[in-house]
Amino acid sequence: MDHDLLPSETKRIHMSEQYPLAIDFRTARNVSVPLIAVNSLDPAATMRALAWSLVNVASASQADTDNEFGLHAFPILKWDIGHGLIPLNEEGKNWHTQNVGPSKQNTTINPAEALRVLEKVPQRTLTFILNGHRYLSNDFFIQGLWNCRDLYKTNGSTIVLLGIGFKLPPELANDVVLLNEPLPTATQLESIIKEQLSAASLPLPDPATLAKAVDATLGLGAFTAEQEVARSMQASGLNVDKLWERKRQIIDATPGLSVWRGGSSYAQIGGVATIKHFLKQVLVSKRAPRCIVWLDEIEKSLSGSTGQASDTSGVSQALLGILLSYMQDHQASGLLLVGPNGTSKSAIAKATGAEANIPTIALDISGLKSSLVGSSEQQMRQALNVISAISQDKACFIATSNNISQLPPELIRRFGYGTWYVDLPSQDEREAIWNIYFAKFGLAADTDRPNDHNWTGAEIERCARLSWELSMPLSEAAKYIVPTAISAKESIKALEAQAHQTYLSANREGVFDQNRDTPHHTRPRTITLAQ
After folding, report:
1. From CA 521, how far away is CA 399, in angstroms rounded?
2. Interval 150-179: pLDDT, tens
3. Could you tell me which of 50, 45, 110, 119 has the C-alpha nearest to residue 83?
4. DSSP state of 184
5. pLDDT of residue 458
6. Whole-angstrom Cα distance, residue 342 to residue 320?
């Protein structure tokens, strides 16, 4: 984009080219489609963009572009639950004065009453209804929209519902055209960042810093990106760390999503060499992921989705269906990590993002559930839309599970990188894990270690932490450890039988073999320790 343009010209180009849905909207408007719903995370920017889409750009080049709505000869109106029906341009104001005025303004706060008033609009009127998705379960609102349908088809007027996660009721499913507004692309965000810096007379960043800034704004709406870039400016230029932290806060505010802020990498995980090697290849592949989506204990999040557990509400089944469709439609990659508690499954998922310097986003499906199926579905779609925007549709899903027997086969197949069994660490792997925690807790290298046969990495960490916190020998701290191999012996045997010759081994090359790979089938090394 030419940064020498006057502010009005820059704004005109920005508003006319930033939003790809403008062409679809203009086409629908030109054939007199009366009812349109637009999924938008930034309704203010969307209204301006749709207004610009109806302008003849060539003839508007010298116009006052401070008010996009003032460029039109037909009324433009807006409704929201706080203000009711209000005009956005002079033609809208004239109509509003004659048909609403101060005496009826408060009446139009009721959406059904507002729609009754909107039956009287003149030709080509454009009306925006904010948060329209929230009223599509209201019988009066549904009927009011339907009543406007034929009237608007005849006189070329349009009602645009703006919201998130529209689920059209059967009464309107064939009458409302649903459009989706894609969030700004990396190229568009780069232009926004440069424009903001230039406007503030600040130096443009070097290409590497600019790329990091773009990554930090992916997933934000245009308006939000502009605001956050402005807030992250300092005398020397753009503070990318501050920009990233603000993005994390926005993601955290999305129901069901949170950004993992830990900085652990694969170097802080002992053992599991095979899965780490494989994931390193994934991170530099032709379809290298732009973010990691971590689903912890996925079998619990989707319990009841396959009929093996009680979920009479239908919420789990609905969320499963959305996840299945999303992973297929977006060609999302991923893998399943199965194994006993404490074997580093979650640590692998969390460290993968840090390893590639990309965000790791925890998707808490349980946190999306509400008593209403529609509300849960809406929140699930919103969370997945944010993931798509942040990753540019290059997300890698890593799900952990202690038992995937309750997961449907069609979901397991979506994880195209395979199902991996994360076993109890071998003697050599435990040695590597001890070294990591000796360094972390400052324990002397020659400290005697307890008999750690069949311990998990989590148990080794707990023992080292207790020794450090309570200033006691490791041998004494070990007295307070009950290994999972003992407390959950039967469930581990069942997991091994399930994984045998079926799952890939995360610890060693090839398919997991119960008779070859499990460390507790081998005799532990004899070492002299303080007992």
Report:
1. 28
2. 999 999 999 999 998 788 899 998 999 999
3. 110
4. P
5. 94
6. 27
Residue in the structure block whose two tokens are 């501050």 = 242
Q: Cβ–Cβ contacts within 10 Å for residue 214, how many?
A: 20
d(CA 512, CA 490): 18
CA distances from 501 to 58, 272, 419, 492, 510 (A): 67, 18, 12, 16, 9
Taking alpha carbons only, the member of 307, 401, 396, 301 closest to residue 353 is 396
**Residue found by looking up tokens 């909107």 in the block:** 118
Q: What number of other Cβ atoms are within 10 A of residue 329's Cβ?
A: 9
Contact status, residue 485 vs residue 492, Cβ threshold 8 Å: yes
Under DSSP, the state recorded for 131 is T
Which residues are paired to 129 by β-bridges?
Answer: 79, 161
DSSP 8-state symbol, 286 = T
Distance in angstroms (rounded) separating the CA atoms of residues 229 and 270: 39
- Cβ pair 111, 138 in contact under 8 A: yes
- Residues 6 or more apart whose CB falls under 8 angstroms from that of 58 comprise none
Phi-psi region of 357 (alpha: psi -120 to 50; beta: other; left: phi over 0): left
The Cβ-side half-sphere exposure at 138, using a 13 Å CA radius, reads 13
Comparing 523 with 43, which gets the higher pLDDT? 43
Pair of tokens at residue 343: 């074997």
* Tokens describing residue 23: 């062409």
| CA distances for 491 relative to 3, 215, 340, 462, 498, angstroms | 64, 43, 8, 22, 10
Termini Cα distance of the chain: 71
Q: Report helix, strand or coil for 163.
A: strand
d(CA 492, CA 499): 10
Q: Is the pLDDT of residue 343 over 90?
A: yes
Are 155 and 124 in contact by the 8 Å Cβ rule? The answer is yes
- For residues 441 and 325, the answer to whether their CB atoms sit within 8 Å is no
Q: Which two three-digit tokens encode residue 356? A: 């590639």
Task: Please count the other Cβ atoms lying within 10 Å of the Cβ belonging to residue 139.
Answer: 10
Q: Which residues of 175-210 are buried (b: 16+ CB within 10 A; e: fewer)?
A: bbbebebebbeeebbbbbbbbbbeeeeeeebeeeeb
Q: Kindly state the tokens that stand for 177.
A: 């055209």
Amino acid identity at 282: V
Structure tokens at 328: 């297929």
517, 435 contact by CB (below 8 A):
no
Q: What is the pLDDT of residues 472-522, one digit of tens each?
A: 999 999 999 999 999 999 999 999 999 999 999 999 999 999 887 665 544
Contact 22, 54 (CB under 8 A): no
Distance (Å, whole) CA 518 – CA 401: 18
236 φ, ψ (degrees, to nearest 5): -85, -5
Q: Is the pTM of this model over 0.85?
A: no
| Secondary structure string (H, E, C) spanning 306-340 | CCCCCCCCCHHHHHHHHHHHHHHHCCCEEEEEECC
